Hints:
Blueprint (H helix, E strand, L loop, with lengths): L4 H9 L5 H15 L2 H5 L3 H17 L3 E4 L2 E5 L1 H10 L5
Antiparallel strand pairs: 1-2
Helix pairs in contact: 2-4, 2-5
Amino acid sequence: MIPYIKEFIEINLRGEFPTWELSAYVVKKMSESGTQNDFDELPDWLREGVRKEIASYKASGIWLILQSNSEGEDFAPYAEEVLRRFDLRS
């Protein structure tokens, strides 16, 4: 199971955590220790969000997330790992 996913989904549904950011979190955690089952058990809208972010990465070759309180983080390695290990079509 993706750590804290239920809590983050609840925060997203309240409008306090954008879907793109939640999708990025899912990609990072899946790349580190996720399973296909983790992806398959996500709500449809979140699986679609992950697909959208991965498609954007594939189109540009760049996935950098900048936050006001930290340095940017390169999500390309996480995306590549997810593309290598997971079937995102399910």
